Request: fold
Amino acid sequence: MKIDGAPGTTPALARLLGAGQASAGYRDGGVTVACAQPPAASDVARPGVTAVLWTIRELGGGFHMPAMRPQYGIDACAAILKATNADVCILPGLTHQPGWMPQADDGMIRMVVQEAGTGLAEARRILAVLSAADPGAGWQLVPVHGADDKPANAVNQSTCFLYKSGRGIAAGKAILAATDTGLMAVLPLTVPDRFDCPPQVCFTAPLAVRARCFYASAPAGTAPTGVLPPDAVVAYSVPAGLAGNAHFAAFRNACEVAYAPPLAQGSRLKLPYWEQVALRDPGLLNNFMAVAAADVLQQDSSMHCEALAPGVHPASLDEVSGKLADAVLLRHTSTAPAPHLAVTRVVDLVRAVLDPELLAALGASDALPEDGCAAAMRAQHAAPPVADQAATAQARARNQLAAAILFARLLSDHWPVLAELRLQPSLDRDCP
Amino acid sequence: MLIIRPEQMRAFMAAGVRALRADLIAHGHACHPQAAALLGVAGLVRAVDATIDDAICCELDGLQAVSRLLDLALVFGPPLPATMRAVLLDPGQGSPARRLRRLWNGALFQLEAQA
Reply:
C-alpha cells in the first residue's frame, strides 16, 4: 500500500541519522571505528522471533461491525495470521461491549448490564480456527486482566496476544502497566535458545487504540498490575495515522522507544473515492454504497456530476493507497545488550483476498506468502453485484480491485505489520 | 584495599574523554562535512572542546556517547542548546547514558515532526 503524502525528510534528520549509524559502530575505549561484522553463521541459522501487529477493525463489534462476525470473516483472519508465519500476534483494539442480560429476580425478569468481552470472544474464535489449521504450532491466547482479575479494558477496548507454544516459547501472565499516555498490556515471553533473541522478551501495546478518551476518569477495573519492563517490543496503532500525530509523539516519549524511521508502506486503507465524497458532502449525494458498493464504473457513471472531480480508483496493486497508522518500536532502557528490531513489511490484505490468477494482471511482480490465502473465504461472502460493463482491461481491473478492497475492509482497514526481533550482532568480535 | 573516590573516578573519566578529541574531530569532518566547512577548522575544534566539557559535566564517556553529543551540538547548534543541556543534567531522568538516549531519540522525533 503506498502512502498518501508519504513522510518526507529534512537534511538535519538525514544528517543526524547518518551520524547515528556511523557512531553505532564506534567501539568505546578510544579505538576509532569497529569493523562492520557480519553475524556469525550460527546466528544466521537461528531465526529471530517474528511478531505481527494487527488491529482488526472493531473485532467484537462496533459502529460498523457486528459483535459476532460471520465465520468466513474469522476464517479469513486466521488464514492471514497463519500466512504471516509469526510467532507472536498482538491484537489491539478488541471491543468490549456491555450487553443487557435477563436475570430472574423473585418471579420477575430484570435486565442487568453485563460486561461482555465480545472482542476477546472473537479472538478465541480466531484461535480455534488457527489451532485447527496449524495443530503443531500450539497457538495460545493470553488475555489481559486488571487488578480485580477481570478482563481489562480501557474506553471499552482491550488487547490480547497470541503466541506459538509449539516452538518452545512460553508466556507469563500478561500485566497492565501505566504510562503517561495510558494503560499498556504487557506480555512477558520466555524464548528458547533455538531463537536468535534475548531469552526474556516482552511485547506490549496500548490497551486502547483510540487516542481520544471521552471519560472524565478511567473506568473502574483498569488498575495497573505492573510496570513497563525496561526492554520491550512496543506496538502502536491509531486510526488517525502517525504523521503529525501528537499522541504518537507523546507515546514515544512516555515509552522511551528508540527512534525508527517510518515504514515506507501504508498500513491503513483509505476510504474509496465516492465514500469520501459522500462523507464530505452529505447533502450532495445519496449514498450509493448499498446499490453497487464494489462497482466503481457504475458509481462513476451514476454519481459523477460536473461539479465534482472525476472518480479516482486504483487500477493496479501499486495504486492502492492509505496512510501509515501502525508502528512496532523497541524500548531499551536496561544495560543489557540491545536487541535489534527490524520492521519488515506490511501484510497486503488485498493480495490476500484476491484470486491468485488475478495477481499478475493487477501488477503483482513477486510472490508473497499471503497471496490468495483468504480468497476462498471471500468467495463465501455475498458480494454486491458488479455489472459486466467494463469495456477495457483497465476498467475491469478497477472493478476487480474495488471488490477486493471492499472485502479487505470488511476484515480490517488496518493491515498487519510484521517485525522480527533479533539479538544485535556483537561488535566485540575481532576484525578480520 | 584500594578505594577510588567519585572525584577520582570523574578525573579518570575526564582524562578518557579528553583523549577522544582527535577522534571527535574526525567524526565531525566525516559526518557533518557542511557544518565543518561552515565552522572552519578552528570552529570545529571549538565545538569539539565545548562538547568534551559538556560530556565531562554530564558524566558521559565513551566515543559513541560523546560523538552523539557532538552530533546534537552540530545539528542544533553549536553550542548545544540550553534545553538539551538541562535534560542531560537532570538526575531525575535516570543515568547519564539514559538521559543521552532520551535526548537523542527526542531530537529525532522532533526533526521527524518537522519533515
Observations:
- The helical segments of chain B are 6-18, 21-31, 33-57, 63-76, 82-89, 96-114.
- The CA atoms of residues 29 and 36 of chain B lie 6 Å apart.
